[in-house]
């Protein structure tokens, strides 16, 4: 089976709930679906009780759909643009209240003019603000919207940052040093390359009120793969430009290194409720501010050279696609909650999974590519 795991909205959901589980429930196959519907090529997103699809057509048109999660029916449709990629270009974000905030252009005479639009959970436009082509959107932990407008050049990037309430009222406006990399757990992280050769990226962390918290100067010949915040500790994944080795650092709120540890060259970092998850091609490791907590290996995947694919969810679950088996793990200890066998007859089909937490799994059968008639999205509840 050809499978791809769709990234979750863990950076857009502010509350993670720990789960304690004693025994794993195994499924020989998925239970009956709650609903199924034909779709175009779509990315799937869920926050709170709100489900969204961002779809592409063969003509390269893109649409944003608000979906009734109980029935799978479309509640409303919005036009986006071919250049808009949710979660990558940071042109669209969704609040827990179901509001959608979207950057998109309007043709004015001979040029495109960009605006920030806000829509409620029924698709009604709430307000509109002026924006720029290279602006990026982020959702802060308190539900406010951050609009980052970068400018400058290598070694001298700046970002003008605006924050708004869900009602469109401007809260703050301030110029930050560096390029806004991401926003998470009440912190805004900027980076700024100082030279093409050294690839040294000073990391600056700002709080939600746009005040500088700390600056960390990355060692020469290293670059930042990722940085995440957990309980006022900051975990930085660095790659050595020369030998490509990876290192995981833990910083305190002053930007001082608590500890560092070498990790696999395939390592990828993402947050759970109170820990940091490091995933490699064939293993998982949980860390906190004191270091490694526990780890889990997947020897069968290593033997068959089948990489695992990971998602984290809002309720502290970890979704693992092992190829012939799907596992849902407890994010506190990596113990199995659910195990689902993948049917043998699916091996030649293109299947994409999105696990949204709370035992809800969405499955996209994209075997026919852009063919809407034969492409199907189904919702399953693992109870």
Describe the structure.
Helices cover 2% and strands 53% of the residues. It is mainly beta and 383 residues long. The protein has a five-stranded mixed beta sheet, with no helix packed on it. The protein has a five-stranded mixed beta sheet with strand order 2-31-30-29-28, with no helix packed on it. A hairpin with a 5-residue loop joins strand 21 and strand 22. It is globular and about 55 Å long. Residues 1-23 have low confidence and may be disordered.
Question: How do the strands and helices of this protein lay out in sequence?
Answer:
Elements: E1 2-5, E2 25-27, E3 35-38, E4 41-47, E5 50-56, E6 62-67, E7 74-79, E8 92-94, E9 100-108, E10 111-119, E11 125-130, E12 136-139, E13 145-151, E14 158-164, E15 170-177, E16 179-184, E17 187-191, E18 203-207, E19 212-216, E20 222-230, E21 233-240, E22 246-251, E23 257-263, E24 268-271, E25 276-279, E26 283-288, E27 291-297, H1 299-304, E28 309-312, E29 317-321, E30 325-330, E31 336-341, E32 350-357, E33 360-365, E34 376-381
Parallel strand pairs: 1-32, 2-31
Antiparallel strand pairs: 3-34, 4-5, 5-6, 6-7, 8-9, 9-10, 10-11, 12-13, 13-14, 14-15, 16-17, 17-18, 18-19, 20-21, 21-22, 22-23, 24-25, 25-26, 26-27, 28-29, 29-30, 30-31, 32-33, 33-34
């Amino acid at each position: 089976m050809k499978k791809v795991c769709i990234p979750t909205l863990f950076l857009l959901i502010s509350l993670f709930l720990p789960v304690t589980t004693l025994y794993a429930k195994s499924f020989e196959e998925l239970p009956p679906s709650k609903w199924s519907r034909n779709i175009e090529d779509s990315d799937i997103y869920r926050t709170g009780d709100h489900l969204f699809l961002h779809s592409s057509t063969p003509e390269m048109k893109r649409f944003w759909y608000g979906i009734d999660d109980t029935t799978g029916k479309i509640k409303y449709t919005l036009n986006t643009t071919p250049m808009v990629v949710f979660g990558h270009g940071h042109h669209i974000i969704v609040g827990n209240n179901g509001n959608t905030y979207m950057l998109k252009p309007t043709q004015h005479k001979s040029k495109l003019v960009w605006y920030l639009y806000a829509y409620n959970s029924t698709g009604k436009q709430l307000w509109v603000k002026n924006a720029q082509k290279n602006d990026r959107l982020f959702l802060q932990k308190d539900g406010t919207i951050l609009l980052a407008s970068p400018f400058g050049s290598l070694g001298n990037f700046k970002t003008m940052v605006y924050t708004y309430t869900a009602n469109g009222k401007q809260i703050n406006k301030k110029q930050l040093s560096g390029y806004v990399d991401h926003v998470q757990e009440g912190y805004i992280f900027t980076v700024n390359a100082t030279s093409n050769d050294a690839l040294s990226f000073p990391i600056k962390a700002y709080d939600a009120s746009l005040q500088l918290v700390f600056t960390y100067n990355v060692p020469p010949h290293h670059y930042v793969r990722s940085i995440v915040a957990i309980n006022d500790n900051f975990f930085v994944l660095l790659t050595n430009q020369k030998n490509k080795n990876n290192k995981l650092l833990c910083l305190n709120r002053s930007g001082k290194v608590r500890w560092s540890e070498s990790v696999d060259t395939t390592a990828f970092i993402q947050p759970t409720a109170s820990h940091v998850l490091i995933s490699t091609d064939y293993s998982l490791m949980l860390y906190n501010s004191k270091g490694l907590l526990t780890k889990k290996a997947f020897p069968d995947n290593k033997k068959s050279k089948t990489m695992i694919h990971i998602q984290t969810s809002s309720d502290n679950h970890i979704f693992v696609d092992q190829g012939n088996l799907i596992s849902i793990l407890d994010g506190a200890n990596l113990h199995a909650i659910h195990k689902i066998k993948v049917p043998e007859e699916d091996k030649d089909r293109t299947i994409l999974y999105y696990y949204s937490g709370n035992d809800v799994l969405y499955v996209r059968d994209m075997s026919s590519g852009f063919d809407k008639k034969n492409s199907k999205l189904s919702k399953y509840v693992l109870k």
